[in-house]
């Protein structure tokens, strides 16, 4: 069984990704990470809160030691939400858009990942606490593919990432966009996570017209490739769908060494076996 996330739900958020995570539910896009406006945590589902639970998170110097799980009975499924310190409790009824609590930067996050809500769905008779077992997801929007020539200027930086000014969103707020790949868009951590996805009408995984993975339906196993910025290897590229703004995000410690205003050429090459 597959659960569809409708457009009204998605448009509550600035960005979403089905694959950009190393955790098991994202391996085949059976969970979605939803990125809200700063300081908000609007509920993507409606229903009765079944339980909230505090869970231990991997120790990271930049992150909280605990995360939180919120379970909501939507009537048809149990929604499983993570990364929100809950302001709701068992027995509460929520509607879509209600504030769930405060976003938590947990130790499950890579250092370049912003705060977000993780959402997955389970059948009622399935263990909701295990990391595996979520139902497949689809989204009811067709992200617009953005062609890109591999060049851009750094407009935003952090210790482990840098964002370029291209490709740009042609009409921010109106539609979701992503990096073009053979008619669809690429999604996922490329190539620093094992798998990613091609959303929309695409059937091949290409990065600036270079084939970079093998697709099975929409799920992609990345090839052994190296991404370089101005000839220096970086950890990879964070790929997602966005409605507010776009611009390629390079990640890893060497990406964090790039400076604002610096012109960058990004290239990808297959590693020799």
Automatic annotation (TrEMBL):
**Family annotation (Pfam families):** DUF8155, DUF8155_C
| Positions of the DUF8155 domain | 4-138, 144-268
Could you identify this protein by its name?
A: Peptidase family M23
Which superkingdom, per the lineage?
A: Archaea
Q: Where are the transmembrane segments?
A: none
